Amino acid sequence: MNSIFNTDSSEPVYLQLYNHFRSLILSGALKSQTRLPSIRKCAETYGVSKTTVEAAYVQLELEGCIYSVPQSGFYVADMPDFTPAGKITPEKSKSENHGKAQFDFTSSAADKESFDFNLWQRYVKSALRTGTRLLDYGDPQGEEDLRRALCSYVSKSRGIICGENQIVIGAGVQNLLQLLCALEKERKCVKIMGKPYKKGEAVFTDYGKSVENVSSYSCNDFSCGMIYTSPSHINYKGDVLSLSKRIDLLKHARENDCLIIEDDYDSEFSYTGRPVPSLRSLDGGERVVYIGTFSKLLLPSIRISFMVLTNSLTEKYEKIRELYNQTASKTEQIALCRYISDGHLDSRIKRTKKLYADKTRRFYNGICENKNEKFKISISHTGFSVSISGKNEDVDSLLCFFQKENMRVNCKPTENEDEKVIVLSVSAISSEQIDFLAKKVCECIKKYKSF
Fold first, then answer.
1. How many CB atoms lie within 10 A of CB 155?
2. Is-above-0.90 flag for pTM?
3. Closest C-alpha to 374, from 418, 407, 332, 411
4. CA-CA distance, 139 to 448, in Å (whole number)?
């Protein structure tokens, strides 16, 4: 196999080939209008199958890097000037140094080994063969069949009863929040409850709304127009909002004419048992706008999120829907609809939850082989992260050893001002590295003992 491929990498060969051509295009090594090798010729040159080359070319075409000409082949598209990472100004190189940790326990990215790239590729290819359906921009609200599939999905998974006319699809949560702000111009105040959400705060601020972050879930001081919350993932530990507090929040919203924005991010991976009911299902849809996303459930690069509007907002939206273009890829919407309808989303949730829970348990057991009385080691109640808590000075010293071992971790204060907690997520760590990294953490704890 050609030297551009890393045989030790868990990344599929077609993605390595795609990345190779993409870097050549973005760097300018392959100029606009340059004809790429035919699929057969490319397969021979790089020693791979024609299917592998075809998959790489399809991904490049989806991203607009290349285009196909019938009976002629693939050509490099017009691309803007772009400076590849690593050839940037000294100011930006600081952030690069920050990102060079060899072992990242902060990532919530999808585990590559849990996603079937070949299966998703087949659905994308099938969507590309839908012919005339791809000749227009599509429904500004999102493809009707996908919205219908999402109605069934949220009904079964989160107890939300809604019609397809209440669902709006967009390319990411920020895009949906922009539309929501356009619908709710009169609500000028937003309170973000729990974990700060800087990207959401930026949208609200851009639309002239005042924003306040509120760490407490007390409803005593929420005299505002909108409340943004992620009740299924409210803080760095992945804690969830209890049922009683959800009910209190809904009562407060009704009594004070507040609109709740429920970002249900990570809900599929936040529970070891049955999920707490969503705010939207408890409310019935009068005071809660529900937002869901597939960034972690599938892949972050599949930029498809959806919003379930209240009845009153649905009426407002129907009056302006034609003024806003759809931002999510029509091809990926068609692929996702069929992926869900064929039952693959449910299968992936079950398979991935088991994988994450198993990796976390293995990691925890490996660390507990070398306990230290100064630290409390535990698995979060979600089952998908390991916490190491202790006195501030002890945790700070341990962090120094983690940094020397090239580990990036999350460290936050606890409700006790004298204590801190280190949270280790292994969702994006490969199964092959779990035992090795558990030993690494143990070594840091041993070094602390003799420090």
1. 13
2. no
3. 418
4. 59
Q: Which amino acid is at 225?
A: G
Specify the residue for token string 């973005």: 26
Three-state secondary structure readout of the chain: CCCCCCCCCCCCHHHHHHHHHHHHHHHCCCCCCCECCCHHHHHHHHCCCHHHHHHHHHHHHHCCCEEEECCCEEEECCCCCCCCCCCCCHHHHHHHHHCCCCEECCCCCCCHHHCCHHHHHHHHHHHHCCHHHHHCCCCCCCCHHHHHHHHHHHHHHHCCCCCHHHEEEECCHHHHHHHHHHHCCCCCEEEEECCCCHHHHHHHHHCCCEEEEECCCCCCCCCCCEEEECCCCCCCCCCCCCHHHHHHHHHHHHHCCCEEEEECCCHHHCCCCCCCCCHHHHHCCCCEEEEEECCCCCCCCCCCEEEECCHHHHHHHHHHHHHCCCCCCHHHHHHHHHHHHCCHHHHHHHHHHHHHHHHHHHHHHHHHCCCCCCCEEEECCCCCCEEEEEEHHHHHHHHHHHHHCCEECEEEECCCCCEEEEEECCCCCCHHHHHHHHHHHHHHHHHHHCC
Tell me the average confidence (pLDDT) per consecutive run of 10 residues in the chain, 451 residues long: 71 84 84 90 88 83 78 80 39 40 70 79 92 88 96 90 95 93 92 85 92 71 79 66 83 89 75 70 90 80 91 94 92 94 88 85 84 79 80 87 84 80 84 89 76 52
Crossing angle of helices 117-128 and 50-62, rounded to 10°: 70
d(CA 312, CA 256): 17
Could you give the angle at which helices 392-404 and 434-449 cross, rounded to 10 degrees? 130
Report the distance separating Cα 143 and Cα 166, nearest Å: 13
